[in-house]
């Protein structure tokens, strides 16, 4: 357990971490996009679009991520759609988290006072701009702590992508443990790296939350007194 | 728990895993635990003169259950390895086997040893010892499967040429389900020879001794042979 | 009514509106000429806010026709957009955007809708903020303003869009008399530029000063419609007389 | 694949389902309680309480549920705290989901206009009642779709409790598949049962959402038009 | 000022309050006798809302002392609770509870705070809802009301708690003259029962009618404090004269 051993072990683990982070960033970005689109589809006044969004959300939420990954990687391959493990993993994580984020975004959007829609409509601001400039920034602020939850779950769930042959952090750990027979040490290192990543993301979200707070409104610091004072 | 405590409470807590026939499984018809290791554990309890109580966990839970003191004895198809021996104390080996090759019944090719597998399309279970043997073999395509039925199906469908497997499970499966069109390669000489035994918590010497004694007696009086024979695997018994 | 030569800029014919079972507006006819300043008054709950919200389709009507600037309002989003580009509104509850500063509240709509440059938009916004006497609050967020300051931001935000028609829903409710005077002056000035106005207000002094015509509503119907002198001098209906009785006895 | 076989297979699966549902209901209930308490601790004006809540949230979100279950069931047993698998499983799920729910609840509570706090304070309504009667019902309505996400994840994550000797649905399926060699059929049945459970929960949440909607406010049905109309 | 024999029920001494760098209230002294009806007026942004929000500690002051009913307000939650039990407030923005019906808005606080039975609470609530003429809206939610109706619910909600002191922040801003009269009558009646009132308003007619004393604020300071006849008849300061000039010129 000397330093040299640890350095020796760290090399493959850091390589795995790069894959984990790549999966995280690509699918986080895409999942937010898919989540937004699905959310608006879910809120559409056209019945067909709404139903399609509901169907997507229910199917994804009703099945485990592992099954979805298998389906995309192995199932689609049987009908001739062959993707690399990384692409399939990104796609799977995106589709999975997109469905959950869609419902989270809907929570946020529905928590915005209808007066905000009315004012922006009355000013003539059109649908997309209304959403981008008026509604989403406020909704985002409302759901921000919960959004952090999903970021942290995403980084941990990315380990499932190991089953479709991506050597991300968890898989690197498994292989290292198998070849060195030092599973305790290896898994401790793996856990520490995940925890580190989680802490960084968590910190980023706490900072983001501070930046999003609006003077004169709920800002945690000033109104928190509410819960202990009378 | 030390031996005297086990004897005092008159129950032996045994942890097993019920998803590995014929070593241990849950019979859906009777809703009871069955299998070689289950029978062996029962035999040991009989020899100790105590009743038996099973805990059934997935593979990953076996060793923690023992080390956390939730069970006295582990009776599961867990290979005896140096690494595991660092955290638990294994009993004397009871039975064992090496890796085997499964292929279609009409296959003419033979694989005399492990080196001859090089360059073929091979299937194994994910996270199995066989997978670890294969994963660094150059020029070889390795497919991994969640369980044996899917692996066997792919052998029959000729998506893979051979499967590198645990012979006892496959033999039992081919026999009990009468799956046609498959055979074990009799000429294959396994590279490894894994042994299976029970295990007790690290340092629980008197219980280990008592279990070993019981096993020795069962070996002597043929009980062990009868158990393995019942599952069609008497040839695997450690002499 | 000698000015009835032009086509009305707002024309409502036989408009009825229900909220569930409750009929808010009852077969209502209402029209406004270009450049006219119409004051809408009447008891609480009579349907004044609902009426003006129909004009830029924040509510949908169930019967009758509404045409603004010659465009008839129906489900066509394109028409609705056209109408909204011409119609500004000041809300009873202000509806400022809490996440934007006062200046952004006023300038961002200009940039988004009228595609003005950032500098141009901010200059225009500052001009109107100065007009309502709060240029010094430009950097604050709505949550940091007093009631009257919020209301003035709402007025400045709408005015800076320079719409052809302005709808005011009690634009001076939170204002002190000094500021009422200020807003009144601004409105008179805008009207001189030809802006059409429909203004709901309870302040009869303000109504007298600003209005070309007073429309009195009760229970979802228009009861009386007359120039201020006539309306305040000799109301034709008992209901209006009763209503005005309370006003006059007070001051 | 005749009916008798399926009936034979269904018996152990249904037994497993009972455990899954038991885990779900007990830990859903407790996790909401833990989530609420943590959320208020997180918002407390006392620094120590706030820090403790943050610490709990970060540790839980930074480690995988599986590790938490192992720690509670096996780790604690080594220092003499022995729980049954079911109790340990419930505890693990509760603590895990409690941390995520705490952040979701905080999202909801912070989305409530401060005027609501002021009005209830001015009326003399005290802290706990203020939360119970005024704040939480409105916050709950705001986060309701996202709460459904967690219910669905909880029922699926309950399968991890298998490692600590609870024969819930997934474990029953594994054992059945192993002993019958009919893994395709068995896992299809298992998947169907999970999907059924998810659908029922989803449906319950959709109904609940309708019940929570307030006339005259955002109610999805009437305001949805916002997204397609001008 | 011959009634100054009693102890004041509200006593503010040398109170200063800052929002960040901005000083809203400047070393302000203000006291109200039991049963007195004080009208607070002054230009927008002068600190009127802030002043009354200090009385039930919706804001914290940084300097000076505030005592209500003999209880000095500091960080002690117990004292704050005691004060709030005695002080009712009507907000400028109403702050109704959107998830409760009109009746629940009024009756639930009675049940929670005064431990009244459901029946008793609802009867009391209905009594006050009738007084502000909206018993028929009892089953609706706030989102379904007009502006004036909301304001009346807010008034009924506070009054039904029967507090010893009422703080009103522009209680008639959304009301038509008829309803103003109604609210005014109710307030006069309550004052006859000995309720103390502090009322921010811009409606000078209302102020004249209801006030025992008019307090005029500007820039976070109290400039003048006098009975209505004196204040409206012969304002002592130039600032007040200017302010009133706008009012009088209007009507
Ligand atoms: N969403 C709704 N559902 C049911 N009734 C409603 C709804 N919105 C408004 N109403 C009712 O419609 C009537 C007219 O409302 P409106 O807001 O137009 O009144 P108003 O004339 O503006 O009154 P005020 O002067 O008080 O603002 C009121 O009686 C109100 O209760
Ligand atoms: N949270 C805040 N942060 C910074 N400044 C604030 C904040 N709240 C209020 N102010 C400022 O304090 C001043 C006094 O506000 P207050 O609400 O007391 O005014 P007011 O006399 O009630 O005015 P109005 O008649 O317009 O309601 C205003 O200039 C306002 O901009
Ligand atoms: Mg109105
Ligand atoms: Mg104010």
From TrEMBL, chains A, D:
Q: Where are the transmembrane segments?
A: 20-43, 184-205
Q: Keywords assigned by UniProt?
A: Amino-acid transport, Cell membrane, Membrane, Transmembrane, Transmembrane helix, Transport
How is this protein positioned relative to the membrane?
Answer: Multi-pass membrane protein
**UniProt-listed InterPro entries:** AA_ABC_transptr_permease_3TM, ArtM/GltK/GlnP/TcyL/YhdX-like, MetI-like, MetI-like_sf
Q: Where is the ABC transmembrane type-1 domain?
A: 17-202
Annotated localization: Cell inner membrane; Cell membrane
* UniProt entry tagged with the keyword Cell wall biogenesis/degradation: no
Tell me which Pfam families the record gives: BPD_transp_1
The UniProt record lists the keyword Transmembrane helix: yes
Q: Which family does it belong to?
A: Belongs to the binding-protein-dependent transport system permease family. HisMQ subfamily.
Put simply, this protein is called Amino acid ABC transporter permease
| Protein source organism | Castellaniella hirudinis
Automatic annotation (TrEMBL), chains C, E:
Keyword Membrane among UniProt keywords: yes
Q: Which Gene3D superfamilies does the entry link to? A: P-loop containing nucleotide triphosphate hydrolases (3.40.50.300)
What are the record keywords, sorted? ATP-binding, Cell membrane, Membrane, Nucleotide-binding, Transport
What does the sequence similarity comment in the record state about its family? Belongs to the ABC transporter superfamily.
Identify this protein by name: Amino acid ABC transporter ATP-binding protein
Q: Name one GO molecular function term.
A: ATP binding
Write down the InterPro entries for this protein, in alphabetical order. AAA+_ATPase (IPR003593), ABC_ATPase_HisP-typ (IPR030679), ABC_transporter-like_ATP-bd (IPR003439), ABC_transporter-like_CS (IPR017871), MetN_ABC_transporter-like (IPR050086), P-loop_NTPase (IPR027417)
Q: Which Pfam families match?
A: ABC_tran
In this protein, which residues make up the domain named ABC transporter? 10-244
- Spell out the SUPFAM superfamilies in the cross-references: P-loop containing nucleoside triphosphate hydrolases
